[in-house]
Design brief:
The chain contains 33 helices and 25 strands. The protein is α/β, with parallel strands linked by helices and 826 residues long. The protein has three domains: 88 residues, no CATH class; 355 residues, Glycogen Phosphorylase B (Rossmann fold), CATH 3.40.50; 249 residues, Rossmann fold (3-Layer(aba) Sandwich), CATH 3.40.50. The strands form six sheets. Strands 1, 4, 7, 8, 11, 12, 13, 14, 18 and 19 form a ten-stranded mixed sheet that branches. Strands 22-21-20-23-24-25 form a six-stranded parallel sheet, with helices on both faces. Strands 15-17-16 form a three-stranded antiparallel sheet. It binds N-[(cyclohexylcarbonyl)carbamoyl]-beta-D-glucopyranosylamine. N-[(cyclohexylcarbonyl)carbamoyl]-beta-D-glucopyranosylamine (F58) binds next to helix 6. It holds the Pfam family Phosphorylase. Keywords: Carbohydrate metabolism, Glycosyltransferase, Pyridoxal phosphate, Transferase.
Length: 826
């Protein structure tokens, strides 16, 4: 493991309070043209960012000098999503000047929390996959690795969610309406991207055949760089996001011919590419615009890499030593044929040479086993948008089937069909995951269990062919954002207990296990949790108007809304408790607040119905005086990174209840455990590894295993058996047919029941119901014993050092990327 010093005295940037104050004031005057008496919080926030940027840019320049000076191997992380959230607080912590800035601002009459909340979230991602990319670039910079993130500069990130009468309404997100202080436009690195058109076979002067693509359209890619400050400030890498523009905005020919309107329309079409992030989670949108987005950013990024490489090299013999490209899911796999095109068609390499390079450069991370999330593109659509790439894919496939598959399984046409990158059928489809496996030297899953399932279930024949290509890298989270910055109280306690180095070596927290039984430590730990809960209670009141008590169990489920994540199983538990309370208002249960946060894909009807259901059930329960406030249900609108940062430190119970075998890893599970919440969860994804770390007695595991789930489905699962055999379950499901929760709208929640009965309950909520209710009873029991709960919470927090994203990155470096660390500033 690379050791990066992060002791306060080792931070390279020392800026005293006075200097910071002066810098903020100077920027207020000279950058934003305002004065102290007139400036609002937005102006103060921007001036603060400019002051921070003076240090950031210095780090950026030094890092650039260092990395280009040694011409070193670097990783290029290609991802359609980077869910960065807000950057101000993080940059301050990573530079080691948070306290200095806070005190300076206080003296200027400004509150740092207020200023930080002026920053809109940079929500350029849907969920786990995008947030993982953000954690990874934080870790890469922290560890001093040469790295660049490449993605799209969406004008609108993930939609803003509002509730209207309990229904989700989507509103456009505008994260840079008033300018964004962190981004730097780099017009000197603009790239051109061809699209559409046709391919011709030509013969060169030497009689050699070559393919020439005559594109129907050219788009410009304009890069915007976001500096990525590593913890300790020793390295500042960049995230480079591409914005699409019309190639020649002032097309004089069209313009002069009276085509002003046509020229404008063309401009609008070009700009549409980076206009908006697709809000789908775990379902693919087989839309032309999405394929165009994928190609657009891969094409720009590869040209950028080649341009930089060619500055120092005359041929491509060192390309694979210098460059490794990680594909974040299949979304950027189009980069594989694109590199082939650039090397063969544009640089004149032989196919074999180019393929040998390409095979050493790419690696692919898979994030899902769900069949509906595995990308496939209609061959006809593909040919229309990228005619040359389809030819290249055919060639890759042809050589793979003839040279590799036929050798291993001679005369086996069925095997060829099975493994073909092109799926036969009507329509024929390009299987992007197969292209990924064939074109990459490594394919990895994101948690141990997931990686095993990839080998056994998703790609069994590829695994037989190339066992050495498959590997696991368990996900992680950055402890800088997900503990130090979001939970300053607990961070201070840990500083005192184990010293200040835990933000880079999270395993140091293990020492705290020794204090788990110490009543004094327990008291301090739980007092912090209580204060965090009080803070969240205020947020809840402000966002929902519902008053909740910090004495109650804060039971939280935050993640995208999806049937496999089973928010509706949680709902069934709520209904069960509510019904029991109505039958016996004196029932002795621990008070609980059920807290949700989730966005549903705009076209995902059932997911939206579940949001509506939870909102309506909450309204009824929260207003029902008979149950004396013993349970409350709140759904916080517009769940996003900055809201997660307020919720996670306040969690007592973390709901990780996906159907076993469906959640590749999960990362929210790690964030909660680190902040001292106990997990109630299935044996799925990284829950399995969390259990290994914290011990079986400190986690509430329930439900069928992945093997049991698949046997049950194979044997013919009938959810009605559970419905008819469990009167309590039957009663709460029948409740959904009534208008009890939706006065004057009988049956408004019936679709949820229908999906569980007529719909066959594909994610086995009813099969796991009883076991879930039992596990929840065990939670209730455990919470009664304050000392026991405190001990369990402390052990969780202290035992999850493995899930530091620095460890994930080091695993990638060791098994896939083979990089050397070069912190720029010592
Ligand atoms: C998530 N995938 C996994 N996809 O579901 C989760 O288990 C894992 O922890 C995480 O990746 C990180 O590895 C995920 O977030 C998406 O959001 C895609 C967006 C584009 C469309 C398809 C889903």
């Amino acid at each position: 493991m690379v050791q990066v010093s992060t002791a306060a005295e080792d931070f390279p940037f020392y800026l005293d309070k006075e200097a910071f104050k002066q810098s903020v004031q100077r920027h207020l005057h000279t950058t934003y043209g305002t004065v102290e008496s007139k400036a609002n919080s937005l102006a103060w926030w921007k001036a603060t960012c400019s002051a921070i940027n003076e240090l950031v840019f210095e780090g950026l320049t030094e890092t650039h000098k260092k990395h280009s000076g040694i011409d070193t191997r670097a990783v290029h992380y290609l991802s359609l999503e980077f869910l960065m959230g807000r950057l101000t607080r993080n940059n301050l912590y990573n530079l080691g000047i948070f306290e200095t800035a806070r005190d300076a601002l206080t003296e200027l009459g400004q509150d740092i929390d207020t200023l930080c909340s002026e920053e809109p979230d940079m929500a350029l991602g849907n969920g786990g996959l995008g947030r993982l990319a953000a954690c990874f670039i934080d870790s890469l910079a922290t560890l001093g690795y040469p790295a660049i993130g490449y993605g799209i500069h969406y004008e609108h990130g993930l939609f803003r969610q509002e509730f209207r009468d309990g229904h989700q309404i989507e509103r456009p997100d505008s994260w840079r309406d008033y300018g964004n202080p962190w981004e730097i436009c780099r017009p000197e690195s603009i790239q051109k991207v061809p699209l559409y058109g046709y391919v011709e076979t030509e013969f060169g002067p030497n009689g050699k055949m070559r393919k020439v693509w005559h594109p129907g359209e050219m788009i410009r890619g304009v890069p915007w760089d976001i500096p990525v400050v590593g913890f300790g400030g020793h390295t500042v890498n960049i995230l480079r996001l591409w914005e699409s523009r019309a190639d020649d905005y002032f097309d004089w020919d069209v313009f002069n011919a009276g085509g002003y309107v046509d020229a404008q329309a063309e401009k609008a079409r070009a700009e549409a590419i980076s206009k908006v992030l697709y809000p789908n989670d775990e379902t693919l949108a087989g839309k032309e615009l999405r394929l165009t987005q994928q190609y657009f950013f891969c094409c720009c990024s590869l040209q950028d890499m080649l341009r930089r490489y060619k500055r120092r090299h005359d041929d491509f013999s060192h390309f694979a030593e210098q460059i490794v490209i990680q594909l974040n899911d299949t979304h950027p796999t189009i980069a594989i044929p694109e590199l082939m095109r650039q090397l063969v068609d544009l640089e004149g390499l032989k196919w074999e040479e180019a393929w040998a390079i390409s095979q050493q450069v790419f690696a692919y991370t898979n994030h899902t086993l769900l069949p509906e999330a595995l990308e496939k593109w209609d061959v006809v659509l593909f040919e229309h948008v990228l005619p040359r790439h389809l030819e290249i894919i055919y060639e890759i496939n042809h050589r793979f089937l003839d040279e590799v598959v036929a050798k291993k399984w001679p005369n086996d046409d069925q095997m060829k069909q099975r493994l073909s990158i092109i799926e036969e059928g009507n329509p024929r489809m390009v299987r992007m995951a197969y292209l990924g496996v064939v074109g990459c030297f490594k394919t990895n899953g994101v948690a141990y269990m997931h990686s095993e399932l990839i080998k056994k279930e998703l790609f069994p024949y590829f695994y037989e062919l190339w066992p050495e290509r498959f590997t696991n890298v368990t996900n992680g989270i950055t402890p800088r954002r997900w503990l130090k910055a979001c939970n300053p109280r607990l961070s201070a306690l840990f500083d005192e207990a184990v010293g200040t180095h835990w933000p880079t070596d999270l395993t140091l927290l293990r020492q705290v296990v020794a204090k788990a039984d110490d009543p004094k430590f327990q008291k301090r730990f739980m007092a912090i949790k209580h204060q965090n809960k009080q803070d969240l209670a205020k947020v809840i009141l402000q966002l929902t108007g519902v008053e909740v008590s910090a004495e109650a169990i804060f039971d939280i489920q935050i993640k995208r809304l999806h049937e496999y994540k089973r928010q509706h199983l949680n709902m069934l538990h709520i209904l069960t408790l509510y019904r029991r309370l109505l039958q016996d208002p004196d029932l002795d249960i621990q008070p609980r607040v059920f807290i949700f946060g989730a966005k549903a894909a705009p076209g995902y009807k059932l997911a939206k119905d579940i949001i509506f259901g939870i909102n309506k059930i909450g309204e009824r329960i929260n207003a029902d005086e008979r149950i004396k406030g013993k349970i409350k249900v709140v759904f916080l609108p517009n769940y996003r990174v900055s809201l997660a940062e307020q919720m996670i430190p306040a969690g007592d119970l973390s709901e990780q209840i996906s159907t076993a075998g469906k959640e590749a890893s999960g990362t929210g599970n790690m964030k909660f455990a680190l902040n001292g919440a106990l997990t109630i969860g299935t044996m799925d994804g990284a829950n399995v590894e969390i259990r290994e770390e914290v011990g079986d007695e400190n986690i509430f595991i329930f439900g069928l295993s992945a093997d049991e789930v698949s046997s049950k489905l194979k044997a013919g699962y009938n959810s009605r058996d559970y419905y008819y055999n469990n009167p309590e379950l039957k009663a709460i499901l029948d409740w959904l047919d009534s208008d009890y929760f939706t006065p004057n709208q009988p049956g408004a929640l019936a679709s949820i029941k229908r999906s569980l009965l007529d719909g066959g309950d594909p994610f086995l909520c009813l099969a796991d119901y009883e076991s879930y209710i039992c596990a929840q009873q065990a939670v209730d029991q455990a919470y009664r014993d304050k000392a026991r709960w405190a001990k369990m919470a402390i052990i969780n927090s202290a035992s999850v050092g493995k899930f530091n994203s620095d460890r994930s990155i080091q695993d990638y470096v060791d098994t896939i990327w083979k990089l050397k660390s070069y912190p720029a500033i010592e």
